[in-house]
Amino acid sequence: MNDAVNQGSGDAARTSSRARTEQAILEATRELLAEGGVHHLTVERVAALLKMVEQIVEVPDLGNVRSELIGFVDGAVKILGKTLMGRVMQGLVSDLATDPELGRSFREQIVALRVSEIRHVLERAIARGELRPDIDVDLIHEMLFGPVYYRLLLSGGELDAGLAERIVDIVLPAIRR
Questions:
Q1: pLDDT tens-digit map of 41-75
Q2: Domain ranges of the chain
Q3: Class assignment of domain 2-175?
Q4: How far apart are alpha carbons 65 and 42 in whole angstroms?
Q5: Helix, strand, or coil here: 1?
């Protein structure tokens, strides 16, 4: 019984911490935009903002890769779909494509961090025997997050609550052991 109570209070603490972090992200994003709009954002400023986002999308060892990947992708879906971060990315994407230095910096500071996080999750799953050891981590990262960014930037499709699960359930069979 105490375990159930402790688990419940732990969940409440995580939810409260997540709500505070989400509020901090909103405030930081508003502040960045107020200082000069999307076109005056630097990669360093966006990277600092995304470091706060990481606190929300940490991927604990849940014992199975499906749950871990859904949690990881869903964190991005929520941040991009429910905070100003989605608008920041929409405004920043053309600058990333036309400014080689900005694009390189973004890939080195932000994309590389995400790939590293997904690599950790996938290596853990390989060690548990859930995934083939010959998987292409970069490609899997692109397959998991490509649909999210396609909806955000091109199709206008909704970043809905079930999107992460649907993406993972399409990608996972291709890499299972």
A1: 666 666 666 665 555 556 889 999 999 999 999 98
A2: 2-175
A3: mainly alpha
A4: 34
A5: coil
